[in-house]
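quick one before i forget lol
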Amino acid sequence: LPLQTKLADREVTLWYDGLDGSAREAIAEQANDVYDFKKLCKALTADDWVLDFGGHLGLVALLIRLLAPLAQIITVEPSPWTYILLSINLLQNTPEHLRDVIALHAGVGASLGQMEGIHLSDNSWDSARTATVRGGRPRPSRGVAFN
């Protein structure tokens, strides 16, 4: 479903799964800037990188892109369905000259391997809790993207 709201004082249309109760909550959080990104992003330059692990619907990546147009942004989302919505939200709401957010369909964790899980349509924030890693070996000293 599409939802009209404001991010960084700009009208945006955000797509989300209508069954996902957590999506409306996440959209409201970012629309109200509960994490004070306006303040946090003021000093970001072209030399700064923002890493968004668990990109969900692309809300944080989009908000940061709109607030800090020069910063480099990577967002990572493991759920295939949520990654599609993240990609649509970034493409539809980012000005053409700022469409350089790197969006990866992957996960980040302590083990190298292939992540498997179940997308929870009613609460996509919790989908990662169902994920397991198949193959690979534990790497507790650092996070590694799942392929």
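fyi The CA atoms of residues 12 and 106 lie 26 Å apart.
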